[in-house]
Give the backbone structure.
Amino acid sequence: MAAFTRIHTLFFLSLFFLMSFTATSSDRPSLAEPQVSQIFRNIAEITDRASIEWILDDFLIAEDPDLVERLEIIDVSNIGFGRDDIVVVYPSLNVYIVEQPSRELTEIMRSWGIQEQRRDASNELSPDYFYPDQADTLSEEELRDRQLELVQGSIIADLLESVNRNYTDMPISLRFERDQEGFTFQIWNYDRNAFAFHPRPAAPDTVGVYDFMYMVAADTVIIADTVMYDLMFINKSVQEIIEVPLQPADRQVIRTTNLP
C-alpha cells in the first residue's frame, strides 16, 4: 500500500472564526478581526484502487469506492498519520475524521513519511556561509554526489541575502511553490514598516579591462653628401738595448722590439 501513497506538504490557511448568531440582541458581542496565518501539514495521497477500498472500509466511510479517484489524509496534529486526522475524498470533497483505524492500518500509516530537504540555522550566519563557493574545485563525481546539497545552499544564500537587504525585523514567513503552470509566492507574519527596498549590488566586473598606452617614436635620418670614414691609428715603437758585459770576450748585443 505504501508504494501507492505519495506524501507531500499541505499548506493551508488556519482560520479562527466565530459562528454567526441569528439573535438580534444588542448584547451580542462584536466580531473581532481574527489573525490569519498559515501552517504546514503533511498529506498522504492515495490513488491505488485496492488501498482506497481498504481505507474506506477500515474508516467506515460511506463512499462508493468506484466513484472515488483519490484520498487525502491530512496529519492535522503534526505527530504522524493516525487517529484524529482528516480524510478528504475526491472528487466529492467530503471530509471525514479518522476516529480509530485498525492496528494493522495504523502501523502502515505510521511508516508514511516525506523526503524533505530542510535546513535549520542560526540568524548569526551570513549568506556567504551557505553559498558553495568551493564547488569549482570539486570533481565531476563529487559534483554529482553533492548536487542537492550545493543547489540547496545556493538557493538559501541568495534568498537570505535578499531578505537581509530588504527586511530589517523579525519574524517573517515566506512561501514559494512552482509547477508546470506557474508559481505562487507569499509573504506573511511580517511588520510592514520593516520593509526597506535596497537595489541589488552591482555584479562584480569579471571582464579584464586594459588601459591603452600610445607610443610615438620618430627617427631622424641624416643623409650627407660626403662619404665619411672612421680613422684608425696604429702606433709602433722600437727600442734597442746594447748590453756591454765586463768581459770583452763575452760581449753580447741584445735587441728587443716592443710593440704596444
